[in-house]
Amino acid sequence: MTETLWAALAPTPAATRVIVTRGPNEAILKANLRTDPHHHRALATFLEAMALWEGRVVRAALVADDDTTTSGTSLFRDCAIDRDEGPLFSVDVVWDRKRQRTRDGLGGLGDFRDLQRLIRAELSR
Hints:
Helices cover about 30% and strands about 30% of the residues. The chain has about 120 residues and is of the alpha/beta class. The chain is globular. It has helices spanning about 40-55, 65-70, 75-80, 115-125, and strands at about 5-10, 15-20, 25-35, 55-65, 90-95.
């Protein structure tokens, strides 16, 4: 597992938006999940599953802003408590910034541009 998958998870009051990409432009998964995961290991298990499925390490960003950090979602608490990152994935909490519009081939699931921008910013480091 030498190549990297990039994931961004953005909790909102209505749902947790998720995007996973191979590189900056190839979206392979988009989802709108529950705002609050049913199990405290859901985030770690999801990222491990993606790594095992694709055979690549996952580098994930949990997106924070004023609304999400006070909304009551357990993702930030679970991320802080369950810091058992290993060889399959890592998670960083990142502050949301505005970004420009881009298109990919997976329409119909809503606007994921802000999450793709975060992945591009990480790749450019």
